[in-house]
Design brief:
The complex is a heterodimer of chains A (108) and B (868). Chain A is an alpha+beta fold. Chain A has one domain: Winged helix-like DNA-binding domain superfamily/Winged helix DNA-binding domain (Arc Repressor Mutant, subunit A, Orthogonal Bundle), CATH 1.10.10.10. Chain A is built from four helices and two strands; from the N terminus they run H-H-H-E-E-H. Chain A has a two-stranded antiparallel ribbon with strand order 1-2. In chain A, helix 1 packs across helix 3. In chain A, 31% of the residues are buried. The radius of gyration of chain B is 40 Å and the shape is elongated. With 868 residues, chain B is α+β, with helices and mostly antiparallel strands. In chain B, the strands form five sheets. In chain B, strands 18, 19, 20, 21, 22, 23, 24, 25 and 26 form a nine-stranded mixed beta sheet that branches. In chain B, strands 1, 2, 3, 4, 12 and 13 form a six-stranded antiparallel beta sheet that branches. In chain B, strands 5-6-11-8-10-9 form a six-stranded mixed barrel. The model of chain B has no long low-confidence stretch (mean pLDDT 84). Chain B has four domains: 56 residues, no CATH class; 208 residues, no CATH class; 299 residues, no CATH class; 190 residues, no CATH class. Classes of the chains: A alpha+beta (108), B alpha+beta (868).
Chain lengths: 108, 868
């Protein structure tokens, strides 16, 4: 699992894909991220991150149906893979375990 | 306004230009979706800016298309689809697939077996590394008005080539012509083995693969090289080098080398030992004699030597050394290269002719090709018969843009899939049947699994079969007109049926010809087996008197053996009863000299009783008349040559050996080939220098019971001789081996050919029945009876088989007549062979077809007419 690292933004995109489950495609992910992060996110950054995590095998994709408001273009839906899920779990555990080591001193 | 709804044109175009085609559409979709959102929320201007910005930000290495432009790297997907469709078709029609794959696999298995056999024949002697440069010395000589060819030479010639012509040869070695049977003993282990007596250079020349010791092992006269298997028998796991074996209880020979057993496809395969030639001629011959023809001479050429040139050069070397009589016969020697020994060594009047072996290689190759062809025809037949089912698929593929070339590719692909499956099954069949095939064909063939060339050949063979079988269906199916098919007006016409019929006729012609051939081969074998042989082989055992201890023990042996009450009679002779050696001329009657030579053998008094002579006239030798010692018994053929009115009582003189009185005339004994005329024989009495002992066991005693007793008697009188006996009837039956081999193989191939043809017929019949379901339904409604329908459906096929018969009968008559022509004693070809085969073929055809015909005829017409 260590051979593929996961960048910070990539991790966020992956989390978003996992959270949206089966409904995740470019624009929705973008909107979701903007909502959570409360700042503008660039669509290009999302697509590059998606391509990278797909190449790494953390998500897989399928083509959706044709919708009118996209100029007749298909949506590409992303779903998280088992590998991606394990990656997220590992990242979560890692952060958690380090977090727990923080001494309980008041940071007044 | 409509114009302004879209994002900035140039940015959009720019994006489409640089983006990787794989991602172009969905990213574009996202961009457009986003853009619309923004137009709604923030207005067109801001949205346009964002769009341009996005497009520029997307200009990254991951998203930009490759420079050289994007294309699919292969048409893998298309092939995957072909494979899938092909597989589904096989799985859907399990019956047809079984017939197709099974038939093709059988055909391929036969072709593979035959290829292995042919390869084995063609690679004969290649085990010897000097294969290219070794030759045997042959001699042409006038003999009875013809130029005869002989391989036995005088030792003087070999020595001459070795000394005076040494510069022309790398090696010259003389070997005792034919193998010699000798008893090899080490302690209690003794075995009769056949091997060669050879000059020391021979081992190097034949490149014996030494397991122990060296090839130089024969330089000492008292040495011997043993085959690995023999060494193992004699010494077990102990090291045989420098051990001493006793040969024929006379000579102590030191084992100086052990060589790997020679393979079955070597001329010297039966050499279980090589002993020095010096030992063989010790005491009675020399290496420089010019009057005793008893050795083969082998030479190995120098690098770059030419057989023909050298042959011309040494042609006349004998003339200066031989006596006047031999000189008159114009002896002329030449070199016969090792590559030709096995398949190209038959001479007729001094010229090479096509040998029987070469012919059989051709015959078997032809059979292999034919059987494979049958299987391929089957395949084509079934594929085209199913064409109407595939027609719709072809139509749709064509109308959505398939090129004809692609369709051809598809159907070839499907055939290759089937051919590949068949090849795998065929390999399994070959592997399983090889032991049996080796037994029948007297070979020792194994699948060369570790040889990459073999696998390459297999793949090439599979491709070839696939392309052959697939060519017609691929071209035929791909030629359909899409419009006609889809409109439903397509109907396989008259011309589609014609080739199929021709194919069936060809199949049956081949099968019937093979069957007739097989029957005639068996008739010939049976005919020769039923030939009266002139003596009785039952309960007769023979063995070589392979020990000096036999000398002078004849009467003791006879008394001891007869006193066991198990033995009827024993006798000795100087030659075996199943060979025709011992020829002499120079007989005359009252001064009339006979030109012919006679087969002369020496026997003891009891020979006639032991082998069961059948007398035509006169009497047997008898111990009651001492004068019988100068008496002779002749056979009918000899009597015919002598042409005496009443031969019994007449006297023949034989050169200066005196007068011999004819005591009796016996029926001819078939000693040599059962297919050849018997030899004129004159039989003399003698008791010295006998090579063969014959023992007749009493008819009421079983051999099982008698053999141990006989063995113990022999062991007490001649302890050094092994008890290596053969039953005369078994030895005689061995003479039929070659023909029985042909018979068995021919049976196998014709049964397979017939089976493949029937499989094809079965498939075709079922298909035609299916195609005519509607017609049959309507006919039934209109009142046709089941026999009527059966007749209608079967008639077509019966006609085809009758045509096949009429082609194959003259064909097989021609072939079998020429095959029988090689035998002097042969059966006549009778018309009922043809009649029965034709009838049999017809019956088999009708049975095959009837199954489908009756199935179609009894079907409920309502069902067949309601569909649609």
């Amino acid at each position: 699992m260590t051979q593929h690292s996961l960048g910070e933004f990539e991790e966020l995109v992956l989390l978003m894909v996992a959270a949206l489950h089966d409904e995740a495609y470019g624009v929705v992910i973008l909107e979701g991220l903007e909502e959570k992060l409360k700042k503008k996110v660039n669509i290009s950054a999302v697509h590059v991150a998606l391509k990278r995590i797909e190449d790494k095998g953390f998500v897989k994709s399928r083509m959706g149906g044709i919708t009118e408001d996209r100029g007749g273009r298909r949506k590409k839906f992303y779903v998280i893979t088992a590998l991606g899920k394990r990656m997220l779990d590992a990242q979560y555990d890692l952060r958690n375990s380090i977090y727990k080591q923080i001494p309980k001193i008041s940071f007044g | 306004m409509k114009k302004t709804i879209g994002p900035p044109r140039f940015a959009h175009r720019f994006f489409r230009w640089y983006c990787h085609p794989r991602m172009r559409n969905h990213i574009e979709g996202d961009l457009l979706e986003d853009y619309r959102d923004r137009v709604h929320k923030k207005g067109k201007w801001k949205a346009d800016v964002r769009f341009v910005l996005d497009v520029l930000l997307l200009l990254r290495p991951e998203i930009i298309r490759p420079l050289e432009g994007y294309k699919n790297l292969n048409t893998y997907g298309m092939y995957k689809s072909y494979f899938k469709i092909g597989w589904r078709n096989l799985a859907k029609n399990k019956g047809y697939s079984f017939i197709n794959i099974g038939g093709l696999a059988l055909g391929m298995a036969v072709a593979m077996l035959i290829s292995l056999w042919v390869y084995d024949e063609l690679s004969f002697n290649k085990y010897h590394q000097n294969y290219e440069t070794i030759a045997q010395v042959y001699r042409l000589q006038n003999r009875g008005g013809e130029r005869g060819v002989s391989t036995s030479h005088v030792t003087g010639l070999g020595t001459l080539l070795k000394t005076e012509y040494a510069s022309h040869f790398k090696n010259v070695a003389m070997i005792r012509a034919r193998t010699e049977e000798r008893v090899l003993a080490f302690g209690e282990n003794k075995f009769t083995q056949s091997g060669y007596f050879m000059q020391p250079e021979g081992a190097e020349m034949l490149t014996l693969k030494m397991v122990r010791g060296t090839r130089q092992g024969l330089t000492d006269m008292k040495s011997i090289l043993l085959a690995e298997s023999v060494a193992k028998k004699l010494f077990g796991d102990a090291d045989p080098i420098n051990q001493v074996v006793l040969m024929d209880a006379k000579w102590d020979l030191k084992v100086t080398g052990v060589y790997e057993d020679l393979p079955k496809n070597s001329t010297f395969y039966d050499a279980s030992y090589f002993a020095p030639l010096d030992l063989y001629i010790d005491g009675w011959g020399s290496l420089t004699s010019w009057d005793n023809y008893f050795v083969y001479i082998y030479v190995q050429l120098n690098e770059g030597g030419n057989f023909e040139e050298l042959s011309r050069y040494i042609k006349d070397v004998m003339l200066a050394h031989v006596d006047a009589e031999t000189k008159e016969s114009k002896p002329e020697i030449f070199l016969h290269p090792m590559g030709q020994w096995h398949l190209d060594s038959e001479f007729k009047n001094g010229e090479l002719t096509t040998s029987k072996r070469m012919l059989s290689v051709w015959y078997y190759s032809a059979i292999g090709v034919f059987v494979l062809l049958l299987a391929c025809i089957n395949f084509m037949n079934l594929s085209t018969a199913r064409s109407e089912k595939r027609a719709k698929e072809v139509g749709i593929r064509k109308s959505i843009g398939s090129m004809r070339g692609q369709l051809i590719q598809q159907f070839f692909g499907e055939t290759l899939l089937v051919a590949f499956l068949s090849a795998v099954i065929a390999l399994i069949i070959v592997q399983l049947s090889l032991p049996w095939f080796n037994y029948v064909s007297d070979k020792n063939i194994a699948l060369p699994i570790s040889n990459p060339l073999f696998w390459l050949a297999c793949v090439a063979f599979t491709l070839f079969t696939g392309l052959l079988a697939g060519s017609y269906p691929a071209l035929y199916l791909s030629s359909f007109n899409a419009v006609k098919i889809l409109k439903g007006t397509f109907k396989a016409g008259r011309f589609a049926v014609l080739p199929r019929r021709v194919l069936v006729v060809v199949q049956f012609t081949v099968s019937i010809t093979l069957t007739i051939g097989t029957i005639i081969v068996y008739q010939q074998i049976q005919f020769a087996k039923n030939r009266p042989v002139g003596y009785s082989r039952a309960n007769l055992i023979g063995m070589r008197t392979a020990s000096p201890e036999y000398k002078g023990q004849y009467h003791t042996l006879r008394n001891e053996l007869k006193s066991t009450n198990l033995v009827e009679e024993i006798a000795e002779a100087n030659y075996s009863i199943i060979d025709t050696r011992g020829w002499n001329g120079g007989f005359s009657w009252h001064g009339n000299k006979y030109d012919q030579t006679f087969n002369t053998i020496y026997v003891t008094h009891e020979y006639g009783k032991t082998v069961g002579w059948e007398f035509v006239a006169g009497r047997d030798f008898s111990r009651d008349f001492p004068s019988d010692l100068s008496g002779i018994v002749i056979n009918e053929s000899a009597a015919a040559i002598l042409s005496l009115e009443n031969p019994v009582g007449e006297s023949l003189s034989w050169m200066d050996r005196g007068e011999f009185k004819i005591l009796g005339v016996v029926k001819d004994m078939v000693k040599g080939s059962p297919y050849e005329p018997t030899d004129p024989s004159i039989i003399f009495l003698s008791e010295s220098d006998m090579q063969w002992l014959y023992i007749k066991i009493k008819p009421e005693v079983s051999a099982h019971e008698a053999l141990p007793k006989i063995q113990s008697v022999l062991a007490s009188i001649v302890p050094s001789a092994p008890f290596d006996y053969t039953f005369a009837d078994e030895a005689y039956d061995a003479k039929f081996k070659a023909e029985e081999r042909i018979g068995k193989l021919a049976t196998l191939f014709s049964v397979l050919a017939l089976l493949i043809s029937c499989l094809g017929l079965f498939g075709l019949a079922s298909f035609i029945a299916e195609q005519r379901t509607k017609e049959i339904g309507i006919r039934k409604i209109l009142g046709a009876s089941i026999p009527n329908l059966w007749k209608m459906l079967s008639k077509d096929f019966a006609v085809l088989v009758i045509i096949a018969c009429s082609v194959s009968i003259p064909l097989s008559y021609y072939f079998m007549n020429s095959w029988l022509g090689q035998y002097e004693y042969r059966t006549a070809i009778s018309w009922n062979v043809f009649a029965f085969t034709a009838l049999g073929a017809l019956v088999i055809t009708l049975l095959t077809v009837s199954f489908q015909a009756i199935k179609a005829a009894v079907a409920n017409p309502v069902k067949s007419l309601r569909s649609e």
